[in-house]
Amino acid sequence: MSFLPSCNRRVFLQSLSATALLTTVRPGWGKTIPPIGAQLYTLRKEVVKDLPGTLAAVRKIGITQVEAFPAIYNHPAPELKRIIEDAGLTCPSAHFDYDKLEESVDYAKALGLSYMVCPMLPKAMWSADGFVQAAARYNMIGAKAKNLGMKFAFHNHDYEFLPIKRSGLPDTTGLQLLLEHTDPKLVFWEEDCYWVAQSGNDPLALLKQNERRVRLLHLKDRKANVPASFTMGKDSAFFTEVGTGTIAWPPILKIARETGALLFIEQDETAGPPLESLAISYRNLRKYLA
To answer: Are 155 and 118 in contact (CB under 8 A)?
Structure first.
């Protein structure tokens, strides 16, 4: 199913690409409203049932970009790229599982990505040694991605903020280890603002401290009066739509506008239909960015 008539799709994509070139010129987005994207994990049940129809519905909301995830990689990369473009969307970024990073680089290139992102580490690696080991692998993948004209980034949850005690050394966190042991020219950060806040930290403060590393943002809000966590389990799931929770979005989006960071709405669980949740977050983001 194509959201746009085939005769108009090419013209639309050409104009969209031209707009992207204009709006991504550094130092940031300027006065234009940056593209608002959606991580398709939010719609994981829908895309498995009807990928073209779901993408058309996403585009109808007003969203222009999507971030892909492994459940739809049963499609060959050229085919998936075509399906996304047929819906009038672009796909600048996608998530790839940690244990499949090396084998995914060529797929990412064929998909036409600017960024390939590792969404999380296996739980067995949530330790000082594990984070350092992951950092070494990220450097290697980052170099491969760079050689193919892409960038590599990691995505955070709350477990990266659990204090780690080290004998004879100051306490640290997984995030600190990842940032310290990765090459800033090869490995970037997709900051998930919810999970930073859920760990008891300030997403704005971390964004300010790491403006050059944070090239992508995940946007969902956090309910009020809920406990912090480091477990990424059911006891940390206090999601709500952007603009309906406790995160102060205007200053975060101001920096994103200045740096040109990509914006993706992503909500792990929704109280109602995910497409309706996506639309609420999109409308509120448009208001903040206007």
So the answer is: yes
Category of 225 on φ-ψ map: left (φ > 0), alpha (ψ -120 to 50) or beta? left
Read off the CATH number of the domain in which 145 is found: 3.20.20.150
Helix (H) or strand (E) holding 166: strand 164-166
Identify the helix (H) or strand (E) that includes residue 13: helix 6-23
Task: Give start and end residues of each alpha helix (H) in 91-242.
Answer: 101-110, 128-147, 174-181, 193-198, 203-209
CB count in 10 Å sphere of residue 13: 16
Residue 211 lies in a domain: yes
Cα–Cα distance for residue pair 143/249, rounded to 1 Å: 33
In a domain, 1, yes or no: no
d(CA 117, CA 56): 24
d(CA 179, CA 134): 11
CA-CA distances (angstroms) from residue 42 to 46, 184, 237? 9, 29, 14
pTM of the model: 0.89
Closest to 91 measured CA to CA, from 115, 74, 56: 115
**pLDDT per position as a tens digit, 240-256:** 999 999 999 999 999 99
| Per-residue confidence (pLDDT) for residue 184, from 0 to 100 | 99
d(CA 274, CA 23): 29
Please report whether residue 233 resides in a domain. yes
Residue 120 structure tokens: 């999380």
pLDDT digits (tens, 9 = 90+) for 128-159: 999 999 999 999 999 999 999 999 999 999 99
Classify residue 8 as left (phi > 0), alpha (psi -120 to 50) or beta. Answer: alpha
Residue labelled with tokens 């707009």: 19
